[in-house]
Here is the input.
Amino acid sequence: MKNLFITIVVILSCTSLKAQKAYQFQTKFDDVVPVLNVGTFHMGYTSDANKVNFDENNKENVRQIHEIAKKIAAFKPTIILVEMEPYRNKKLAASYQSYLDNPKMKFDNPDEIELLAYEVGRLSGTKQIYGIDYQQGYYYAIHYALKDQQDVTTYKKYEELMTKNEKLNQIDEDNMNVKDLLWLNNQPEYLDYLINVNADLMTTVSVNGYSLGTEQASKFYNRNLMMFANMNNIPITKGDRIFILMGATHTAFFKDFLRRSPKFKEVNTLDYLK
Here is the structure.
């Protein structure tokens, strides 16, 4: 009887071990392409509702941006991708080449592309630059426009939570220097917040059992997926290294896309912003 009991325990133990087998899946191609995915605030004109008070023509601001460019250039990108629609790629390439020929050239209304992306490319010898933006309108303020919503607390509580975080971390974007702004914009928790306020939190916006908010959020998801599709359409060869510079909300979405993509492997952005 004792031997029978021991035999049963051994069998059950072996069965348990077999059920707990650790599977190992290779999720990336052997020739995976490294990607430095940097989120930024818009340094020039933007149609976004939320803007940072920033003087793109201030010499000290430009100096700080170029200091950051030196750090990012250490990644040695061979391709630069920016938030511009692909139909403008010829004009973008020509403007970039003009900057390479004359780094002291003046731009009337420079933005993060001319101020940061071009300088990173110049310092690292990058030859290729492409736009991957895809324009698609959506109503991200729908929560504030609809009456008689079924969930009237989630948005309010989330706003209170974010206000608490701003006070705790002494965040004042309009009065932060460039380095601190980019450091903030690339924090994982901040990037999750951007997805929440621009898309996921809209799933709480329903009227009469129908999620009008989700309809709008899906448009923003679609925009970012189309931007990632544009990235996948860029010709890439073995040995390429890609630097992406976009508004931080797009960066947040791309972090998820890049994590799952077999073609690309994201490097730690914060290592290049210290």
